[in-house]
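User: Second chain of the day. Same drill as before.
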Amino acid sequence: MPVTVWVLMFTQALSMSAAPLIVFSGGIVGGDLAPVAGWATLPIALVMVGTAASVIPVTRMMHRWGRRSVFVLGALLAGGSSVIAAMAISAASFWWFCVAGFLMGGSVAIAQQYRFAAIEAVSSGDSGKAASRVLLGGLIAAYIGPELVVYGRNLGPIVGLTADNPEHLPFIGAFLLLGAVCLLAMLVLLVGYRNQSVVEVTAFGEGRPLGQIFRHPLIWLAIVASAMGYAMMSFMMTATPVNMHKIIGHSLMDTKWVIQSHIMAMFLPSFFSGWLISRIGHHRMIAAGVLAYVVCLAVAYSGHHLMHYWWALVLLGVGWNFLFVGGTALLPLCYQPAERYKVQSVNEFIVFGIQATAALSSGWVVNQYGWDTLLGLSSVMVMLVVLVLWVNRRSRSEFNPVTG
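Assistant: Same format as last time:
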């Protein structure tokens, strides 16, 4: 792999540590600061909303200024939103904490472009390997984010930020440390990343019209695999702590173990998923993700014991990786270099818009209608991927984006 891919993987580990930190802290701090109990997870939801709202402006800026400049801007945005979050917690301001979450979503939208930048640094045959290497950074980020709460527990008072609730002090320090981590990511990008040599055009709209590009079913396989992979993962993962702990009564430690195992399962397959694509192809990779999701649903339907949840969430993580890496690696084969930004912007908007909708609705669905209903809706997402796979059963990755 080129040095650029490793630089992006390392930067992904630093920049994306913001997401697990705000997921870890959002419910706790949000629950204490929210004026209405039902709004406790709003800061977390706004991260996803901010991501979905930012993807099109982000790709337009990258087209105009290049990826490197926008990547640096994203690291600065992540650092700035971290400081806002720390100050909001110190001031006990729920709404400023929500603002920080939304801005952090913008930085996440920029960091999500790392995988496409990595793909541009390698040949088309290595695109899956490049994307999976970058996703490995998410495994490191999942560890760094929550650990900042431990290392930053005494930092707030040192810089003059205190809290009326002593339990919030570690989170103030954690977000301050996150700001430093994001600045380190910015330095790594400035030193180690250069824009790749690809065909450039002078206007965002040049290349084929979007209607022509999206007329071919293969591009829909790439988008639907990523979108439904993310949607079902967010739908089930967000609802699992509610159902396990609050409804069924499993302990908080058991619930934490299941979620941690799920996150590990999301990213550990990246050690081999890129190689697997080169061996079996994009279609079979996506089909393997569908199979993991089908078994996940079967296990989840079968009972409510601890190991039912553990196996279901581990399979959910593996299925997400196969679907997301498979869809990401397939997408660049469906467009010309001149069309990359506008196609990527549509892809990201669909993927993260659907993810935000799934995450926002999952808690309501499981509370109002129950776990089985949530699983039934999840099965619809799997069936949609199966349908698009069937439509593309004779299409293969050698589709020529020039001729369509």
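DSSP finds 16 helices and no strands in the chain.

User: Great, on to the next one.
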